[in-house]
Structures are given as structure tokens and as C-alpha cells.
Design brief:
1 helix; 8 strands
Length: 124
């Protein structure tokens, strides 16, 4: 995924859910999404140089899977395959500004902003 003018960046934080907001938030990474792509590329500061891929689950509203590997299908080059699930994400209707990401191995919850940086900066 190339970081160009057609790519949006979303901040990823740790913190604590408190009612409808995120308390004690600390930025720990970012997610990038090309406007033409169906997935996000995640980068976490604690694992520099490693990408993860956030993909919306088929037929499951508000549910996502995080994969550690993406490959191009040799039979259909325009088709991507995602392998090695390492976590999941879900939208909580009471927590409307963030997508909650969970990595069971790390026993941590992360929160991805649903609004790209440019929109976050305009609101500040």
C-alpha cells in the first residue's frame, strides 16, 4: 500500500473505555487505507517494520479480522489473500468514534479512530 494523496491515515491508541470516550489515550500506531482498497494496513510502534492487515468480515456487520500476512493470488493478480489471523476488531454502537482492536496473544485492546487525520485536525 503506497502512502500517497489517495491514502487516509487513522490513529491507533491504547487507553480505557469510559462511557462513550477513551481515557488516558496514548498513540501506539496508525492504520493506512487507500481509497480504492478494501483493507487497512496497520503499523504499530512496538513492532517497527511489521505490517498487519485489517479486513472487514464477509456477512458480519461491524466485525473485522487482523492478519499478519497478505499475498497476491497468482491465478487472479487483482485478488488479495490474507493469511495468519492474529486478532480481531469490532464496532461498538455505544463507542462511536473508535474501532476496538484486540490482539489475544498480547492481551491488549487498541482503539483505531474512525476518522482520518485530516478530519481529526479540522475538528481540533
Amino acid at each position: 500500500m503506497n502512502k500517497n494523496n489517495n491514502t487516509d491515515r487513522y490513529q491507533i491508541y491504547t487507553g480505557f473505555k469510559k462511557e462513550n470516550s477513551l481515557d488516558a489515550k496514548l498513540q501506539v500506531g496508525a492504520a493506512f487505507k487507500d481509497q480504492s482498497a478494501n483493507h487497512y494496513a496497520l503499523t504499530l510502534m512496538m513492532f517497527p517494520g511489521t505490517k498487519y492487515y485489517l479486513v472487514k468480515n464477509f456477512n458480519e456487520a461491524g466485525r473485522y479480522t487482523i492478519y499478519s500476512k497478505m499475498i497476491f493470488d497468482p491465478i487472479r493478480p487483482s485478488k488479495l489473500k490474507f493469511l495468519n489471523p492474529v486478532g480481531y476488531g469490532h464496532l461498538d454502537s455505544s463507542f462511536q468514534s473508535y474501532l476496538e482492536l484486540k490482539f489475544p496473544l498480547l492481551r491488549c485492546n487498541l482503539f483505531m479512530s474512525l476518522y482520518p487525520d485530516s478530519l481529526n485536525q479540522k475538528a481540533a
